[in-house]
Write a structure and sequence with these properties.
Radius of gyration: 33 Å
Shape: elongated
Number of helices: 13
Distance between the termini: 54 Å
Helix content: over 70%
Length: about 280
């Protein structure tokens, strides 16, 4: 952890207080692109001011400005210092925004990732833009690897939770709580998509058992609710026609007990089902 903190501190120092480049020579790349020593001197002064306004490394901003000049030359355009000067503040802002991102990921809980990110940040603060590419690529590879491991653990944990939910459903069946059992089996299906079909089969069985135990005559409201739940279970399995039949039966049941609100809500669900 101490190593990570030292890396972050070093990065901050390089970005905020990198040595000035005011006396540096005109880079050969810009000289060959047509930039004169006098123009370079003007550019150096403006880079210093723009870097100070944005609180970023002069070296980094100078390197970015040089890259912009090269891009202009390689694109077949004449390199005009005014073109670069007009973008200095925007480039400095971009470096400042990048610094904020660096500072957030440099504190990654994985020390290997944090160290690599810090190396890239140091490279940019020292104007070595190319040297930042490899450590960032490796940091991303490691983070992706760690995330895959986390996802695998999460999926395994969710499957375990699904089994527990399934056990709850089984206990609910023993207690003749068929709707409760179906709800637990549906939760298990959502937790473990790989086993969803099997869990939903159990939900359907629980609801069908409920219908065989509870007659429509004895409990018309409960029967209608069960039919609505059964239609949802069928729909989750892709059994659209069975879902439609069960939903129509639920509507009739709600109408029988005078529950106009539930009847209308179920009709709305049926319309969406048929529209799909």
């Amino acid at each position: 952890m101490r190593k990570v903190v030292l890396n972050v501190t070093l990065c901050l120092a390089l970005f905020a207080a990198a040595p000035a480049f005011a006396d540096g020579p005109l880079p050969a790349s810009l000289r060959s692109a047509g930039v004169t020593q006098e123009q370079w001197g003007t550019l150096q002064g403006q880079v210093r001011h723009a870097a100070a306004r944005a609180s970023v490394s002069e070296l980094a901003l100078a390197a970015v400005a040089e890259r912009l000049g090269l891009a202009l030359a390689e694109g077949g355009r004449q390199v005009l210092v005014t073109d670069i000067l007009g973008q200095l503040d925007a480039l400095a802002t971009r470096i400042a925004e990048l610094e904020v991102r660096f500072n957030s990921i440099a504190r990654d809980e994985d020390p290997e990732v944090a160290t690599l990110v810090a190396q890239a940040q140091v490279a940019i603060g020292a104007a070595d833009l190319d040297a930042s590419v490899a450590p960032l690529a490796e940091a991303r590879r490691l983070r992706a690897e760690r995330n895959a491991q986390l996802r695998a653990r999460l999926e395994a944990g969710q499957r375990d939770e699904a089994v527990i939910a399934g056990v709850q459903g089984g206990v609910a069946l023993l207690r003749a709580d068929y709707l409760g059992a179906a709800a637990q089996f549906e939760e298990a299906a959502q937790l473990s998509p790989e086993d969803a079909w099997a869990w939903r089969n159990q939900a359907v069985w629980a609801l069908q058992t409920s219908l065989s135990v509870r007659s429509r005559t004895a409990d018309p409201a409960g029967w209608a609710q069960t039919m609505l739940a059964l239609s949802s279970a069928y729909n989750s399995q892709g059994r659209v026609n069975d879902a439609r039949v069960a939903m129509n039966a639920a509507i009739e049941g709600f109408e029988q007990v005078g529950d106009a609100v539930m009847a209308e809500q179920t009709r709305a669900l049926l319309r969406r089902l048929l529209a799909n």
